[in-house]
Amino acid sequence: MTSLRHNPEFDAVADRAPRDAYLDAARACILDVGWRRTTLTEVARRAGVSRMTIYRTWADMPTLLGDLMTREWAGVVTAQVEGSTGGTALDRLVSGVVGTARTLRENELFVRIVELDPELILPYLFSRRGRSQDHILSLTTEAIAACQGDGSVRPGDPALLARAALLAVQGFVLSAHTMADEGVTLDALDAELTTLLTRSLAA
Fold this sequence. Notes:
This protein is mainly α. The chain has helices spanning 8-33, 40-47, 51-55, 61-83, 89-106, 108-116, 123-126, 131-149, 158-174, 176-179, 186-201. Helix 4 (61-83) packs antiparallel against helix 5, helix 5 packs parallel to helix 9 (158-174) and helix 8 packs across helix 9.
């Protein structure tokens, strides 16, 4: 029998809790004072550990922020995808995508970053994809391929269809508030996104 003390899987689980606690502390800092005023020293103070403990995991704040955003957004996506029930496979796919857009748009960390430090998001719109976007694309590509298998989604490269869908959805996440007013609500826009995705993907 392998000793738990030297079991890599056991070590990974044991290491996860403090890392999440450090990310929780960073999240709290950003919500309170914004990204620009958050430092690794402040994260360490809030987490109740030494600065070196934090520095051993993250060399700088951008690296920490990348891990925090990946954890936050991936958690939202996974919850929405796994929580979609009822209807056809395509209905569940579209429901998960629209639910992800709505939840991200209302996520307090996302809102805080957009309000105070929107420049943090610009590289992921104009320069490169982030880990969260790759995670979303992976899940969406798999779901589209599965829907093609049962005939509910039209033929085509699943990766291409997933990327086109993500490009459309990003606008509903980042800019929907600029299109909503007393005449057009966010709920109405989300309903239109549901129609857009369903009709563009349906066989």
